Amino acid sequence: xxxxxxxxxxxxxxxxxxxxxxxxxxxxxxxxxxxxxxxxxxxxxxxxxxxxxxxxxxxxxxxxxxxxxxxxxxxxxxxxxxxxxxxxxxxxxxxxxxxxxxxxxxxxxxxxxxxxxxxxxxxxxxxxxxxxxxxxxxxxxxxxxxxxxxxxxxxxxxxxxxxxxxxxxxxxxxxxxxxxxxxxxxxxxxxxxxxxxxxxxxxxxxxxxxxxxxxxxxxxxxxxxxxxxxxxxxxxxxxxxxxxxxxxxxxxxxxxxxxxxxxxxxxxxxxxxxxxxxxxxxxxxxxxxxxxxxxxxxxxxxxxxxxxxxxxxxxxxx
Length: 318
Hints:
Blueprint: E1 7-10, E2 13-17, E3 28-31, H1 34-42, H2 49-66, H3 70-80, H4 85-99, H5 104-126, E4 135-138, H6 155-162, E5 168-172, H7 179-191, E6 195-198, H8 203-208, E7 214-217, E8 221-223, E9 228-231, H9 234-243, E10 248-251, E11 257-258, H10 275-278, E12 294-297, E13 304-307, E14 310-312
Helix pairs in contact: 1-2, 1-3, 2-3, 2-4, 2-5, 3-4, 4-5, 5-6
């Protein structure tokens, strides 16, 4: 598999892959300071909870190197995309490292290295769920572009594919900015994994035809009770999966678990710009638009969580 890394740190300089331009163009933009990184996170230049966390760690390290106010920098970064818990986790980790006099460049690199190892571990554990001839379904992009290596939801697919297991993946297009069709489908095609792109509304129809064996998605936050905050449309997918008896798995690292937030109802859901929905559609006078980026899937709809520690029924077990 030859995929461009979403984050490159070379000779003390940070480069982010502009995922808004994919799949048409592979373009890296250098981030000169923490404010650049906050903008890149907010504008979906870099996306995916683990990747956002890694980028934020490097942003804090650059601010430390430049002598900037770390508390102010942390506040600006947290506001960039507040729903993704890895962002806050990485910022707090770097603040704590600074308080004990650590080298923040080394700490940021450690966050990056740990993210790669996490992906590989999720891939090993989750690959056991994929049997020969399986039909999987995934939503949004929880792939190699959303982390440092292999992805979360896609990591088991890559590991199983490398082991010679033959399977098929249905990819939700994921409205409104099409992370499934632009990113996940592109990733799987480059890896040589058999897949079919579908509209988001097709999933229930396929399950009714017994065409889906399991669903695996990523997460931007998992609360203490196991509720999963993920890309809008995930909740609907979990509901129809339960109705049709299809196992529903959430793949995420332990850094995505927010033990300080009791339930998904306590999470502020990010509202994205209206233009993401209306782009390319003729303006209609008086039409109102809502564009929530995420929804909450109740824990009771999740079959199990695939973490770096294994496949666990209750997230507290991980």
